[in-house]
Here is the input.
Amino acid sequence: MRLPKRFVEEITRHALEEEPDECCGIVAGRNGRATKLYRMTNVEHSPYRYSMDPKELLRVYHEIEDGGGELMVIYHSHTHTEAYPSATDIRLASWPEAYYLLVSLTNKADPAVRLFRIVQRQVAEVPLEVGQEESPP
Here is the structure.
């Protein structure tokens, strides 16, 4: 999976801005190419968990579908733990077609960013390629 460098930088910035709470958001795309990043509201306002605002999520999902796109990545931050899905993240992963990106703020000077697939509670790390330009088709 390839994401534009500016998206990874924006996700990291979002995580740092929301700290001490977890941030969350979506990356949408078309034909395997990441095209738009959506910062979402974490209605939990918690350093230990996230939940996207349901109305906001519905609006964004419709915008993505109406534009002929697809939900590619769901991202969130871990403020005090590594960039690996927690037991709660795994239990609540309900988009098997999506990638899950986590950013860890355990080292704020150099946040760790990792990408995963979570299908039927099975976690598999996926190589994340950070590109200078938009991701290829």
